[in-house]
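USER: I would love a firmer grasp of how sequence relates to backbone shape in proteins. This is the protein in question:
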Amino acid sequence: MTSISVVVPVFNEEGNVANLHQEIKQMCEANNYNYEIIFVNDGSSDRSEEVCRTLRPLKYIKLRRNFGQTAAMDAGIKAAQYEYIVTMDGDRQNDPADIPMMIQYLEQHDLDVVSGWRKHRKDTVMKKFTSRGANFLRHILIHDGIHDSGCSLKVYRKECFDHINLYGEQHRFIPAILKIKGFSVGEVVVNHRPRTSGTTKYNWKRTIKGFVDMISVWFWNKYSTRPLHLLGGIGFLFLMAGGGCGIWSIVLFCMGRKMSNNIFPPLLTIFFIIIGMLLFVFGLMSEILVKTYYGTHVDSSYSVKEITDYLE
C-alpha cells in the first residue's frame, strides 16, 4: 500500500483549508492510500487555526509566529512519517487530484522528485510576468531542468530531506538543491485552479527574497565545497591588474615622469594588490567556514509551538 504525507503551509486561508482538507482526504481514500494530512499554521491572524482544529484526520502544527512559507514547509516535512511527501499550497490552486498521477510518474521513471508544471496558469498578468522573469533567471543560473520550480505541488521520496534544512524562500528551489545532491528530478503538467477565497501572499518583497536565494543556490551549486576557487580566482585577477599598474608606474618613472604628477598608477597598484590579497584571505576563511558547516548542526530558522494529532 502506498503511504503519503501531504504537507500544506497555511497562512490566512480560513476560506480554503476545510475544502482543501476534504479534497485531499477524498483523493487519498479513493486511491486506498495510507496517509496523513499535515497543516502548518504559519502565524495566521484570521480563523485558520479555529477551522483547522475541527478537521479530522489532521496533524496540526502551529508556529510561534509568521516565519514564511519555506519555514512552514520545512516544519511539515520534518514531521512527515511516510515514504512519499507531497507539498502543496493552502490556497486550493493546486489540485489534489493530480497527486496519484505524479506518484505513478515518479515510480514508473524511478525518480526521487516530481515537480508540478502549471503550464496553463490561472494567475494575474503581473504574477505571470514576474514568475516568467524569475524562471528565465533561474534557467540561466541554476539549470535544474524544471519549467515551473515555483509550483508548490511536488512529490518527494522521504529520504530526499534526510540532511536538508530549508530557509529564506528556498522552497522554490528544492528540486535544484536536491539535484545538486544527486537526486533525480522529473516534471509533469498539473492542473492550476483560480483562487476562489482569500488573497495572494506574493508581493515584490518575496520576489526580491526569491532572487537573493536564487543567487545563494547558484553559489552553493558552483562553489559550496570550494569557495577559494571563486574568491581566489577573482583575487588573482586583481593581483594581475595590480602588477600591470605597477609595470605602468615603473615605465613612467623610467621615462622621467614626476610621480607627483602621475600618482594615479601607483595608487591603482596598491589598491588592486590589497583587494587581491583580501579576496585570497576571504577565500581561505570561507574554506574553513564550509568545513565547520559540514561538521556541525545548523540551527533552525523557526520555532514550533505545538504539534497535535487530530484523529478520526
In short: The chain has a mean pLDDT of 84. Residues 139 and 145 are 8 Å apart (CA to CA). The beta strands are 3-10, 34-41, 58-63, 84-87, 113-117, 154-157, 185-189, 304-310.
